[in-house]
């Protein structure tokens, strides 16, 4: 019987990522196989703040390549990319960059919340996960997936798991040789075995998913 490692981590680092990978390899032979064949996954870290939150909004329901293209065009026009500067752009400018009407609404709402003082992303970094989730989900367009990705990549929480992520669902079906793609609830149940390193497991599964994409443009996040 393998006993799970007890960890009290605030942030995931390269050192703790390595610890997590070793622990997961002991807990799950399928994850161990990914590690053996593909090596360590990228850290996939992003700087906390408005630009990253906006980029995650852009990544909802589209390929990462498409979202990155829109984000890069935005960064080429809005320098620096602050909430105040973003709010200067009108609908025509944002649609020309590649924003949908819905994402214009969401990103403007986030920018307004920050400039009005309703949302303080710096203070958010010191809060517990439940409070962070509650604060962010008050804003239109931000659901659990968006919060999960922000917690996982920007705030480097070690045990966050975006159960509704399409890439993770596809990767788990293939890795576990399941007859059908698991539901988010079923994936969450599978991921229970990966505590307290679920954010590391997510990185391993994305690593595996991308390795099976055969160079095609794929959507990692849903």
From TrEMBL:
InterPro entries: Alkylbase_DNA_Glycosylase/TA, DNA_glycosylase, HhH-GPD_domain. Its EC number is 3.2.2.21. The keyword DNA repair applies. Gene3D superfamilies: 1.10.1670.40, Hypothetical protein, domain 2. It holds the Pfam family HhH-GPD. It comes from the Bacteria. GO terms for cellular component: cytoplasm; protein-DNA complex. Residues 58-210 form the HhH-GPD domain. It catalyses: Hydrolysis of alkylated DNA, releasing 3-methyladenine, 3-methylguanine, 7-methylguanine and 7-methyladenine. This is DNA-3-methyladenine glycosylase II. PANTHER family: DNA-3-METHYLADENINE GLYCOSYLASE. One of its GO terms (molecular function) is alkylated DNA binding. Keywords: DNA damage, DNA repair. GO terms for biological process: base-excision repair, AP site formation; DNA alkylation repair.
């Amino acid at each position: 019987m393998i006993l799970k490692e007890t960890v009290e981590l605030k942030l995931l680092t390269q050192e703790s990522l390595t610890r997590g990978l070793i622990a997961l390899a002991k807990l799950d032979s399928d994850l161990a196989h990914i590690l053996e064949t593909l090596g360590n996954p990228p850290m996939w870290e992003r700087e906390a703040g408005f630009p990253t939150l906006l980029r995650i909004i852009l990544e909802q329901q589209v390929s990462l390549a498409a979202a990155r293209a829109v984000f890069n065009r935005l960064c080429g026009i809005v320098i620096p990319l602050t909430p105040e500067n973003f709010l200067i752009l009108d609908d025509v400018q944002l649609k020309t960059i590649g924003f949908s009407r819905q994402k214009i609404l969401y990103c403007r709402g986030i920018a307004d919340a920050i400039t009005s003082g309703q949302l303080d992303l710096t203070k958010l970094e010191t809060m517990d996960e439940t409070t962070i989730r509650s604060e962010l989900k008050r804003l239109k367009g931000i659901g659990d997936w968006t919060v999960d990705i922000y917690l996982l990549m920007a705030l480097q929480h070690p045990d966050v798991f975006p159960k509704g992520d399409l890439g993770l669902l596809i990767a788990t079906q293939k890795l576990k040789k399941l007859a059908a793609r698991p539901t988010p609830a079923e994936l969450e149940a599978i991921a229970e075995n990966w505590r307290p390193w679920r954010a590391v497991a997510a990185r391993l599964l994305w690593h595996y998913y991308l390795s099976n994409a055969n160079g095609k443009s794929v959507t990692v996040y849903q």
